[in-house]
Amino acid sequence: MAALLAVGTAALAPMAAMAAQLDNDARSVIPKNVQQIIVVDYRAMQNSQAAMDLKARVLPPPLKQLEEAMKNSGFNENHDVEELAFAAFRVSEQDTKTIGIAQGQFDLPDIMATLKKNKIKPQVVRDNKLYPMGKSGMLVVFLNPTTMVFGSSDSLKLAMDVRDGLAPSLLTNSSMLQQMTSVDTEPLWSIMDDQGTQFMMHGLLGEASQLTDYNSIKKRLLGSRYTMNFQNGVKFNLVVSTPDTFTAATMSSLLNAAAMYKKVSGTAVEKSAIDDTTIDSSAGDLEVSFAASDSQFSTLLQSPLFHSVVQ
Fold it and tell me: Which end of the chain offers a freer environment for a tag, N or C, measured as fewer CB atoms within 10 Å?
């Protein structure tokens, strides 16, 4: 059940079967104070109905805006884009920005010729040219023939500051890079920092958070990572890092309690989903895994429990 909760809270764009890695150009444009990164094998998206169903239900508005901007920009995402990433980063305690990063093979001479023909002029930020993406209000900048970055004007200008060395990048964030090495060989993966993890886990615990002083425990949640795979059913794995065995075991107990709370009032499908979830701890890690067939997962998406989780 905790896995289902985490899917609803954190899984934003599922895929299947090939590794999705960020190259150094992509990493160099993401600010150091990144809250969450989600990377997907965009080529495989259309091959799984379960993946498409989940994305339709849980993709948050900011990411929907970015994806729609991509679709309406004139770039053919099905052929040009191989991997798609979203990075949410903090500008202040109250302000979070998001950028999208597309990796693939882009015919830059042809794209530039089309932009020139249509008399589309860029905003210029130092040596960076930021082009409007149709009528979406988003802008795009091509770092090279294989990487482009897109987002709102404010978000993209901040990313260019990072790219040009005026602000620190993800490459200087050792904790997030360490999380990344554990998951970036998977077709869909995400990493979150400590604050993002703390917020996610509070949502997962629900009423179970009242069983203990969660405000004191949450400070010991250091970060998290998850992977999803839609090949031969749906598989989800979440790992939350803590500094010691005791904290991980405590979180495991709390999540198991949350699962039991949900199971009491759940439907037959929901109870089955809870039974298909494993919650455990190993050393300083909380580990959650979930597996279901495509048909079971599609049915689960229609359930009241799933709707309550993703709100």
Answer: C
Taking residues 124-131, report their average pLDDT: 93
Buried-exposed string 267-294: b where 16+ CB fall within 10 A, e elsewhere: eebbbbbbebbebebeebbbbbbbbbeb
Q: Please say if the pLDDT value at position 248 is more than 50.
A: yes
Question: What are the residue ranges spanned by the domains of the chain?
Answer: 2-310
Provide the mean pLDDT of the chain.
81
Instruction: Please give the C-alpha separations between residue 261 and each of 2, 3, 200, 221, in angstroms, as whole numbers.
Output: 11, 15, 18, 23
Residues whose CB falls within 8 Å of the CB of residue 251, separated by 6 or more in sequence, listed in order? 201, 217, 221, 240, 242, 281, 286
The whole-angstrom separation of Cα 3 and Cα 258 is 11
Q: From CA 126, how far away is CA 133, in angstroms rounded?
A: 20
Cβ atoms 81, 102 nearer than 8 A:
yes
Q: Tell me the one-letter amino acid at 222.
A: L
Q: What is this structure's pTM? A: 0.84
> How many whole angstroms separate alpha carbon 250 and alpha carbon 136?
46
Tell how far CA 240 is from the center of its chain: 15
Dig out the tokens for 261 from the structure. Answer: 């709370």
Which pLDDT value is given to residue 169? 95
Q: Give the closest residue to 238 by CA, choosing from 218, 255, 214, 219.
A: 255
80-84: Cβ within 8 A, 24+ apart: 80/104, 80/105, 80/106, 81/42, 81/43, 82/41, 82/42, 82/43, 83/20, 83/21, 83/22, 83/39, 83/40, 83/41, 83/42, 83/43, 84/13, 84/39, 84/40, 84/42
